[in-house]
Amino acid sequence: MKIGVYPGSFDPVTNGHLDIIERASKIFDKLIVAVLVNPNKTPVFDIDERVELLKETTEHLPNVEVKAFKGLLIDFMKQENAKVIVKGLRAVSDFEYEFQMALLNKKLEPSIETIFMMTNSKYSYLSSSMVKEVARFGGCIEDLVPEKIAKKVMKKLNKKYAEMEENK
Fold first, then answer.
1. 126 annotated ligand binder
2. Range from 3-12, 39-48, 55-64 carrying the lowest mean pLDDT
3. Which of 35, 27, 38, 19 is nearest to 3 (CA)?
4. 10 in the Ramachandran plot: left (φ > 0), alpha (ψ -120 to 50) or beta?
5. CA distances (Å), origin 81, targets 72, 124, 151, 163
6. Per residue in 66-106, pLDDT tens?
7. Does the annotation count 41 as an active-site position?
8. Is 90 assigned a catalytic role?
9. Is 78 a catalytic residue?
């Protein structure tokens, strides 16, 4: 069985993420969307919320599983018996970072491969950070995140930013 892992923080999941997930799910027998706990980031959505949003978003894809993980991706890959990391690229700047990570992962575990998938051009500008920025200033995010979860995402972001304003 060919198992791929698409890791990320997904805070929140965007239409760009979903595009990569849908396309990668056609390549692998099983695709695991691995939601990482990143100690270098302070997420708006906690790990359970991100996992749940991704499960809702991908429920139409029978070979996709969503799991949270901490620690090294390589250790998670071994635990899941996966051999391929899937990374989405929007721009050259993404490639530079992801290329370094791919080389590091290869150094840590030579049997692991990384494949890069170019984002659909209509999502090349899109990031979770941009979704949060648009929401923060009252913009519409419905075309930026999967329709199925747009209202939940907006509600959470509105609540978060209202709390931030109160604490100023």
1. yes
2. 39-48
3. 27
4. left
5. 14, 31, 36, 42
6. 999 999 999 999 999 999 999 999 988 889 999 999 999 99
7. yes
8. yes
9. no
* 18 has pLDDT over 90: yes
Among 17, 50, 132, 156, the active-site one is 17
Q: Which domains does the chain have, with CATH numbers?
A: 3-124 (3.40.50.620)
111 annotated among ligand-binding-site residues: no
* Residue 160 neighbours by CB under 8 Å, 6+ apart: 44
CA atoms of 104 and 135, how far apart (whole Å)? 35
Sequential DSSP letters for the chain:
--EEEEEE--TT--HHHHHHHHHHHTT-SEEEEEEE--TT---SS-HHHHHHHHHHHHTT-TTEEEEEE-S-HHHHHHHHT--EEEEEE-SHHHHHHHHHHHHHHHHH-TT-EEEEEEPPGGGTT--HHHHHHHHHTT---TTTS-GGGHHHHHHHHHHHHHHHHHT-
Q: Rounded to two decimals, what is the model's pTM? A: 0.93
CB half-sphere exposure, 31, CA atoms < 13 A = 23
Query: Known binder of ligand: residue 53?
Result: no
Q: Which one is catalytic: 2, 41, 122, 159? A: 41
| β-bridge mates for residue 33, sequence order | 6, 66
Residue 139 labeled ligand binder: no
